[in-house]
Amino acid sequence: MKRLTSIAVILLGALVLGGCAQQSLTGDTYSRREARQVQHVQYAVVDSVRPVVIEGRTDGVVGAGAGAIVGGVAGSTLGGGKGSTITSVLGAVAGGIAGQRIEEATSRRQGQELTLRMDNGELISVVQEVENNQFFRVGDRVRVLRSGATMRVTY
């Protein structure tokens, strides 16, 4: 029975970690909060493109929490008496660290740094996630959508 419970908790932890993916940072994805909001539209030409990596989430508690639970349960199945308590604590700590690292790795994204020459001559730079491995290219004519501090580049 204890083994079955451990397996169930490990599977549950894997499902929770699967939900750690961060919101998309592409130019074509909008949050519910951004829908139906006014955006200022400008046009530009892509001056340069550089591939970058957008770091994964490190501020989430889901990965660390799920990892700690899974590690604690897995650790509790080892040893007996006080040994079981010690392995539970060590398993929880190790699981929490591993869970946080898994969350960061699974939410890391391929991005691109775009330098844009706006129609008014201004030169700006913006970083956004690459969608379907489609990078913008130097010379592309693009739309720049701004709403508050949020900016996105689209065709």
Annotation keywords:
2 domains; single chain; Outer membrane lipoprotein; five-stranded antiparallel β-sheet; 28% strand; elongated; lipoprotein; 3 helices; Bact_OM_lipoprot/Surf_antigen; palmitate; OB fold (Dihydrolipoamide Acetyltransferase, E2P); alpha+beta; 155 residues; 37% helix
- Percent strand equals 25-35%
Q: What's the average pLDDT?
A: 77
User: Helix and strand succession?
Assistant: HEHHEEEE
Give a short account of the largest sheet.
Answer: 5 strands, antiparallel
* Biggest sheet: strand arrangement: 3-2-1-4-5
Q: Share of helix among residues?
A: 25-40%
- Rough shape? elongated
Number of helices: 3
- Report the uncertain regions: 15-22
Tell me the count of domains. Answer: 2
> How many strand segments?
5
Helix/sheet category: alpha+beta
- Report the C-alpha radius of gyration, rounded: 22 Å
How far is the N terminus from the C terminus?
57 Å
GO cellular component, one term: cell outer membrane
Membrane topology: Lipid-anchor
Signal peptide: 1-21
Keywords: Lipoprotein, Membrane, Palmitate, Signal
